[in-house]
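Supplementary Note 3. Input sequence used for the single-chain structure prediction.
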Amino acid sequence: MSKKHIEECVRTSLEGYFRDLRGTEPDGMYDMMVRVVEKPLLEVVMQYADHNQSRAAEWLGLNRNTLRKKLLEHKLIK
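The predicted structure, written as discrete structure tokens, is reproduced below.
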């Protein structure tokens, strides 16, 4: 799957979101998008990294402590 394909999926989803709003103005879209994209991103990367936080952090370009904080925020670890 290419970067372009992922971008198109996001674009299509956002267009559907605006259609569903039926003219109502959105609020807090940026934070909403970060939340809905970040959790599955972390889940899948952790799965492919065999739950190795150091490896996953490297793949994501994050500091391991930052990754751990995000995993805790999304309740993906205890």
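The first helix runs from residue 3 to 21. The helical segments are 3-21, 29-48, 53-60, 64-73.
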